[in-house]
Amino acid sequence: MSFLNTIRGLGRSSKKTKKDIDPSSPLYSLPNGSGTSLRRTQSPTKVSPTKQRTNPNNQMQFSNSHTSSPTKRNRTSQQSSRQSPQRQHQQLHTTNDEIVKEPQELPLFLCEPFVKTALVKGSFKTIVQLPKYVDVGEWLALNIFELFNNLNQFYGVIADYVTPEAYPTMNAGPHTNYLWVDGNGQTVNLPAYQYIDYVITWISGKINDQSVFPTKSGGAFPPNFLKDCKNISRQMFRIFAHIYYQHFDKIVHLSLEAHWNSFFAHFISFVKEFNLIEANELAPLAPLLANLEQQGKIV
To answer: Whole-model pTM?
Structure first.
């Protein structure tokens, strides 16, 4: 049974969708044996929480900018006359132009018990591996179709909260800001809702394009299919990262953290299995990935 059955009906209303997404395919029922049909029968469509401003085409590009500004301070070397000689001696060894980082509060998704909460125990390694006698292009297309479909539904749960006033930038924490590259090659700092709208529209266009994601029997995958899969996976990860940093409290409020964490572990296991995302792109969630590896949820 799909764990997404628990959140159906929590997403955006049908008035805001061009076409309902088929929710019948469960996330954890992907076949991995021979003799089972793997054809995709229906393509997902974009579900937008707001009215679409523009409709990006396949030529749009993406960019990200990582900015780091850790807070630092200098300790003062002033000593009180009431301090003991031992205390004064200790300060002589620690106050000479020493720079220390102020303690930073961990994001909620790294705090216990949430970081260890999961719907599925164990690793997803065997689920994402290419089954025997299955074409690798068809396996990539099937998994990306399912993962994007489920991510779109999860985003629908918190989409109404992603307002331009509350989230004027598409960021993944204080040190990572994702920029959009428009048709003129100019980088644009978009509100989170608009960036995600553009990404969902772009991915939907790719998946619905028979020349990119063929669904007919015997259809050949184009030479740049793997590149498209990598671009789609990278943009999906950015949505994951934004939700983890900015909206995980809403996920917890709805008691969906176990579903969300397992879904993310499934996604990461898949992209790592087929090398779809570069290591530098994963940096914003590196502490979470390390924790999941220690738990044995991703290998």
So the answer is: 0.69
